[in-house]
Fold this sequence. Notes:
The chain is an alpha/beta fold and 234 residues long. It has one domain (33-60, 78-228): Rossmann fold. It is built from seven helices and ten strands. Magnesium ion is lined by residues 48-49.
Amino acid sequence: MSKPIIDIRNLRKVYRMGDEKIVALDNISLTIEKGEICCLLGTSGSGKSTLLNMMAGLEKPTKGQVIIKNKHVEKMNENHLASFRQNNIGFVFQSYNLLPTLTALENVTLPLIFKGIPKAIREKRAKKMLEAVGLEGRLSHKPSQMSGGQQQRVSIARAYVTNPEIVFADEPTGNLDTKTTFEIMNLFTSMAKKHNQTLIIVTHDVETSVYANKIVHIRDGNIEKITYNEKKEN
Length: 234
Ligand code: ADP
Ligand code: MG
């Protein structure tokens, strides 16, 4: 059997606030296979974002290991982390995190600028990505000139434009209505399946979790159980 793309071992995160100790993650062990669409499901405060941030190396664990593609993320320094993220990981956030002064096209080309890709090529790729998310008619629109669903499509295009092996999404449909949630989740999962990318989605919403192959139920900083969905055809 092949090695999992993500291997989390006995992960623990304790925040200290004055004299108080907050155990955000107690003891989490989890493996995620390449191409898996995995949902971290739990109520607010259960530790989902902490777990995702630790996988992405945005925070250091108190104890335990995060091994992605055989590399120890918890041991990387900031420079190493930055290049690791640039080469392997895409991000999507609840509040889209687009740059407000840039157009849709410029927002999507940004990760390619950081990778040093020449202008003509990055514009071509970014346009193709925006087309793939159904926004070919909105290239010159600024975020404020687009709906929430359109902004999230731009941010999905931005996450996928570098063709990352792994995409992390923290409550990506948290600000969207039911119909738009349905559209965005279908887009997300079909894009991940097309390129056999690994997708990890954080949500508190059971209806969003039905799009995943594997659902990791998080409760009070631990894994309560792991369930699997029947293969869903888009
Ligand atoms: P979720 O994403 O599931 O809503 P979080 O991972 O954000 O939950 O938070 C888990 C717990 O850790 C919560 O009790 C939260 O208050 C606490 N927490 C998260 N981040 C910090 C921080 N930077 N400092 C102190 N406590 C934190
Ligand atoms: Mg959260």
